[in-house]
Amino acid sequence: MKKTMAWLLAFCLIAGCVLPAGAKEVAGTETQKTAEQDADKAQNTAEQDTDKTQATAEQDADAVSGNDVKEKVSPVQDDKDWNDKAPAGAKGGVRVYLMNALPVYEDITLSISLEDASGQVSGEAKEVVLPKNSDAGPEKKEAFFEELEAGTYRLRIAESDGGYGFLPFEQDILVGNDVRTLEVYTGAVELPGVAYEAGAPHPGVMLLGDVNRDGKIDGADKDEILKAISGGSAGAADLDKDGKTDLVDLQYYTNSKSLLDQKADISASVTGTVPAGAVQVNVNEASTALTGDVDLLLTGNGAPIQLKNRNGGDISEENPVEIGFNLEGGSASEPVQMEEIEISVGENGIKEGEITVETDEKSVNYMIADGRVQSAVRAASLQEEAGEAPLLIDLGGRTAVKKVTIKITGAFGGNLAEITRVEFLNDTENRIPEPDLDRPENVQVVLENKGFQVSWDPGRNVTGYEVEISKDGVSERKRAASNGLQVKSFQNGKLKNGEIYKVKVRSVNGTWTSPWSDEVSAAPVVTKRPDAPDNLKASVGAYRISLSWKLMEDKDSYNIYYREAGKNSYAKIAGVKENRYVIYGLKELTTYEIYVTGVNDIGESAPSLTSEVRTTTIKPAEMPNYKLLNTSNGKGKLSAHIVSVSHPRGAMEGSALDQDDRSALGVSDKDGASYYQVSDWDDGAAYVSPDKGLLFTLDDYYKMNYIAFAEPEDIASYGKVSVYYYDREHPDGAYAENVSVVQRADKNGRKYYLIKLSKAVEADKIRLGFARAYGLRNITIAEVNFYHYDSLEDDIMALYADDLHTKLQTGVTEETIDGLQRRLDTKDEASGEYHPEREMLRRELDNARGLLTEEFEDIVIVDPKITSTKDGHLGFSGLNAWQPLGVTAYEGEQLVIYVGHDKLETGTESRLNLIATQYHAEAGSFASRVATLRVGRNEITIPGLQTIAGEGGGALYVEYTGNSDEDRYAVRVSGGAKEPVLDLHGVTDEETRKRLIDAYVRELEEHVANLENAHRELHEAAPEGNKVNRPYDEKNCVLGATDIVLDQMMLSVSAKQILEGLGKGTTEERAEKLDQSLLAMDGMMKLFYQHKGLGAGEGVPATDRLPARHLNIRYMRMFAGAFMYASGNHIGIEWGSVSGLSSAKPVQADEKGRYVSGNYFGWGISHEIGHNINQGNYAIAEVTNNYFAQLTRSRDSNDTVRFDYNKVYEKVTSGTEGHPANVFTHLAMYWQLHLAYDRDYNYKTYDSYEEQLENLFFARVDSYSRDPASAEGGLKLDGGSDQNFMRLACAAAKKDLTEFFARWGLVPDEETVRYASQFEKEERALYYLTDDARVYEMENGVVGSVKGENVISSDSSVKTATGASNEVKVSIRCTADPASVLGYEITRVYYENGRQNRQVAGFTTDTTYVDRVSSLNNRVLTYEATAVDQFGYRSNTEKIGEVKISHDGSLDKSMWEVTTNMTSGEDEAGEGVEEDPCEPAPVLTVSRVVDNDYKNTYTGETAEGDAQIVIGLGRERAVCGLKYTLDAGTPIGKYEIDVSADGSSWINVKKGEFKNEAGSQTVYFENADKDPWICTYDAAYVRLRAAGQNGMSVSEIDLLGPAGDNITFGAKENSTEGAVGILQEDYTYAEGKVIPRGSLIFTGSYKGNPAYNMVVLYDEDGNIVGGLNNDGELVAEQIILAKLPDNNGMMGEVSDGIWIYWIENGLQAKLEGKKVRAQLYRVDNALTNEGQRVVSDTAALAIPEELPRISLRNDKEE
């Protein structure tokens, strides 16, 4: 019984050809087809063609008409018509189509040549590049040799560079007067109707697998592949060029070798085509106009030709078009023969007409109806849309054709018909058929949280599938190898729950694809209640409130709750689908409270923050009547002194006065219901034009400086107004400069606007232009008022001598001011009203009185060094350039802001923006740029930023937008309330610093003590309905704000909480404590920015300058789950965290940076700062930002890092790819690089930029990230976060760090490998380094290194643990100084196919290590240990022992991750805390199912679809079963188990129903045919689904690897007696089956299934004992003996037996003194070797020098 190497290899796991039993490897030089074979075939073909041609010539018209053809026969016409022009004639040719049919990862370059019979090359060789894998699928390329003389040619196709290992393809081709066409693929294809045997149509095959490049594919190539797989190398054995040698490469070899062994016909079937030169294309020019190149019509290489009727109009019976093909004449000596005509059409195909084929004897007319030739015997293999299918004419055999005429009487394009190609074909029986692809049916989706699974019925004759996912007009395609796919992402982002994705599927085989399946919809489902809606905003009308809020995820709808303020219950509006809503039917001038919740199938969210708003009224806004010019003549009547009002665009609404379409009298009729409207955001204010705005004509010249206007309904704000006036001096008009517009409100809250002219004008015509502040395209003006000039405001402003109003003019006295006060307190006689700006002007007079006795001090000098214009180089943007004005102002409060400048004139626009903020705000809209200030006086009304129920308003800031350090601005605010501000920016003098801090603390103490009184005096006295007019709330009163400005940080927080953090004590003690805390902040920011490579001073590159802006920590409201957050230009903290900002102490360190004393601000603040200063081109949220938090926490010891080094060791020894699931473990990767390359203690800061760059690893990383050109070797940062960081790290270290990153699970791409390879490889094991190890090196130097030393003692040992056969205890004895040893790397060595495989088992810092082995069973493991010293260097590796392990197959769970589509009542929402401040992920209790606690039960439910649990194993493992344990609860009923290698494509491996009982139940996997054996799958994911159930209860899940099969030497238990020897006498083991006397025999016992087991022996060099013969077959033979089960039972019931392996006398190699190992293989299918794998092996057996004699009888050995 002989078995070939096919039994020994695992290539059957990959789809493709499998060597049959007994197949032999062929030695000797070979090509893919010998010249003799091809020549014979070509000769036979030529003879057949001659016979066929003769037979065809003898056919008559009756034979043709026997094809059931609709035709009419007419005598041959001999007239010279338009189709008489003869062809020029042509010689034959060879056309080769080439296609890559193999998934490969590099392009394939081929050289194609043609030699004649004499060996001369015909024409130039062609070069074709077949592209590597792509989403577009394989693409056919063409090589064409033309103008060939008749004869036999040899086609040769070979690699241009030999990079892959293809054998050259050669085939002889007999060329006559036609073009011979063939297809050659890089691999065999499986298609119906295609067989690689003579006479069957098939493409040629280029065979791949010549690894050693000796011109043949044989066993030597296979050995090279196996060696490369075992050694983990690539090189020439990497046949698919994916960078590794694996079973795919072995499969490629096997496929080629199998074709050779089967003597398959791998030459190409050849078809014929009439050459283009033998055909003349003619057009009936009398009726037909042609567009396009007709010469390309016969090659198909150009655009379609277009045919139109010369008379115009549609093509019809009356207006046909005609094109003809003349094949008669030319150089051909005989008529041109063909079997078939194929006419390909374009989008505008031929609908109706006839095709006339003229032969020697007759003409046959083929009718075209509805785009199909009625006589076509063969239809298109893939039916396109009507009008695009080819028109096919089967002539019933070879026929001599003289002419073909196409008359078109109807076209799908109406007046246009398109033809793309016309071919005249022969040998059509050799055409390669296109596959009859299944259109995928029964496409179904299973919905998951932020994902879905799609599946469909498997197709036939397909090699894979394409799945198209689309949404909102955007689509992407994914490939699937099997009939299922898990979808978790779309367009590089996560799927969103509730959003609808469209899915369709099609089958693929090479270049062919099936039609798409029906489209299905998938909307991922939620598994928890929504978060509370954020950023609820409300705007009001008279009887309505318009709401909007942040669009929240995981919600189906929203509920809105509202009530009148003071009422007990809320009204509810349910089922709102969008994140906006308008509540109608409300009362006017009424305050309402509103909140919103989100709703999904799981439940209702917590409420949003409550908004509080007051509705307005439909009453028109009451504008001032003080000094009114155009007084009322009655409602609806034109007001006084207005002659006309006109508008060049827009329209008047509701105005009875305006019948002319350019009249606008209704804006001066004292009726708010009539109004002017323009659908634009600007009507002549931003873009001044005489064709925009309103032109008012007055009855005389009037002097004025005030104009007012109002809208019919308050919509939005107006940000700009223009005034163009016509006075006596400017009869053609003049533009008024420095016009301002301010918003005011009447007693009912209705808005109106005051237009203020900087200088009064006396005019009889005024043109007003308007522009919205927010770009809303709707300008409405209901009424415009003009006012007589009153000098009172100008007279008051004239009191001042400067723009800041801090100095009085000479001569101003108390009497002057009192006189102005009396005028201000006097009402207008006509209206009885005071001046409309009375309150603002009163402030000016009070200010002037104060200046009579003392100077003004509340002036803010703007620092021009704080500006965003200098920070474009940073690569991060979480900063702002705001400077506090020391004032808080409430919503609706009117302020005057004065701006002074040393050079600019009054009225000039400054480079200062005014920023208004909301105190204790939500993050979404806490700040607004209210205005760009002008030099001089600016009147400001504070806008409402949020509508939350609480005080509206907050601190004010200016933002400098210039870029000149010489700019000198000063700002003063009139109005608002004073806010304590401490500004230490740029303060370097210690005395000045202490004085400022002391003064600030004194102010803070007074301010906080008076807060409640100040609120009562200022806020509760505000107008009724104002949001600050409410009871005092210490957490929300806007008076509680304070700002502290440092060089790199601004704190905008609660004054009370800052004082709280300072504790009790005197003012001086508190000031000292604050000083220390702020020094700590300064020190921390210096530390952070030095690690970012940023500095100041000369010599610092522009890209490494410190930021000009500052970070900003603000007192804010938190969103759901957050404790702190970083967002945009600020960091948000809550009330309880503020006090920590004033209670830190600066860290004191020695000159080396070693910690001495002090503390920074905790993990949370540093974590959030990290978010805002993360370098964007490599940042990973929640990971890289933690580097800064770790800097503040670490004190150079293992116990002060946030991560667990044991978890680090688990990751870097696991062999898994991808990031660690735990963000802190992930952080360790970055931290270890700091440990490896920084040689000062953590708190060390440096005096110069050059020092920090030299000494800090991440300073270099970040510097290079901002300026890649400054790094060595052409650094490119175009690869995403991981690739960019790997490249940056190599640049910073000047080392190749790819091994370090590989240990951490990162896979470098081609560019990263290129960049890293220019550096020397890092030899240290950086992935084991710790803080303690770095300190050891810094304190001791590199002394006592074990590098390259033999320090592992021979008395180290391994043994299996008692009671736990899969636990191996490794005990290490080391001769090195224990203090210098960091730990030990433990490696397992095991054998596969006779070759050693090494696998890192773990790393330990102890001298013992327990290896829990779950991936291997019944296997012999050799353990090795390598010492790693504190410096990262390795000792020599030493073997320390060998054990054989055996267990039940349960896999280790330590690296598993569990996900589910269910939620549990015990799941915990992730709430932020100081140590994890951002919204953490929920704590899901599903992890219980793999926690090895069999009493702890998880119960979950899902709202939709089957309940399921997915276990990620961390890497591919061999899995054959699942054990389900339930301690309490309801068991799962029907179940399905699926496995996947990538988490996307799933294979079902088991369906069934669990028993309705508690305890453990084990099920084993099977294949699709449900064969009666256990099947093993390589899986990285296992999914348990409760079919038809929306919930499940699970206490524990165990996964089982292959277990039970075992092999030992020696037939006696625990003894190797009789394991090897010479057979003393013949042994008959079955009838006619004998082991001959003198054979070298090996014996042993096994446990398994003899029908599916096989034994192979290997020597210590990895060679098969006995070797292979010349045919590649085993020399040795074997049998597996077992007792047959009773009652004719199946062999699968046998559990153990004896194996015998023998080599007959004369074939034995000398083994004495050598060692031999036995390996037991198992397959899932004994016929196909499916699932072949090693399941057990033995320890090495030493062969004695003198072999004993052995007798075999009655199952016993002697």
Would you summarize the structure shown here?
With 1758 residues, the chain is α+β, with helices and mostly antiparallel strands. It contains 22 helices and 98 strands.
Number of strands: 98
Strand content: 25-35%
Distance between the termini: 24 Å
Number of helices: 22
Strand count, sense and closure of the main sheet? 16 strands, mixed
Instruction: List the uncertain runs.
Output: 1-79, 376-387, 1687-1694
Task: Write a structural description.
The protein has 1758 residues and is of the alpha+beta class. The chain has a 16-stranded mixed β-sheet that branches. Strands 38, 41, 42, 43, 44, 45, 46 and 48 form an eight-stranded antiparallel β-sheet that branches. The protein has 22 helices and 98 strands.
Chain-wise SSE layout:
Blueprint: H1 35-57, H2 61-65, E1 73-74, E2 92-99, E3 108-115, E4 126-130, E5 141-148, E6 151-159, E7 169-175, E8 179-185, E9 204-205, H3 219-231, H4 247-261, E10 271-273, E11 280-283, E12 288-291, E13 305-309, E14 321-326, E15 336-345, E16 350-359, E17 363-369, E18 372-373, E19 391-411, E20 417-426, E21 444-448, E22 451-455, E23 464-471, E24 474-480, E25 484-487, E26 489-490, E27 493-494, E28 501-509, E29 512-513, E30 520-522, E31 537-540, E32 545-548, E33 557-564, E34 571-576, E35 580-583, E36 591-599, E37 611-614, E38 642-646, E39 651-653, E40 675-678, E41 682-683, E42 694-710, E43 718-727, E44 734-735, E45 740-745, E46 751-772, E47 779-781, E48 783-786, H5 792-797, H6 814-824, H7 838-853, E49 860-862, E50 882-890, E51 894-901, E52 909-917, E53 927-934, E54 936-941, E55 953-960, E56 969-974, E57 977-978, E58 981-983, H8 990-1009, H9 1011-1019, E59 1041-1045, E60 1049-1054, H10 1055-1061, H11 1067-1091, E61 1111-1115, E62 1124-1127, E63 1130-1133, H12 1135-1138, E64 1145-1149, E65 1155-1159, H13 1162-1173, H14 1186-1193, H15 1205-1212, ...
Parallel strand pairs: 2-8, 8-9, 58-59, 60-61, 61-63, 66-67, 86-96
Antiparallel strand pairs: 1-17, 2-5, 3-4, 3-6, 6-7, 8-10, 10-20, 11-14, 12-13, 13-20, 14-19, 15-19, 15-20, 16-17, 16-19, 17-18, 21-22, 22-25, 23-24, 23-28, 26-27, 28-29, 28-30, 31-32, 32-35, 33-34, 33-36, 36-37, 38-42, 39-40, 40-47, 41-46, 42-46, 42-48, 43-44, 43-46, 45-46, 49-56, 50-55, 50-57, ...
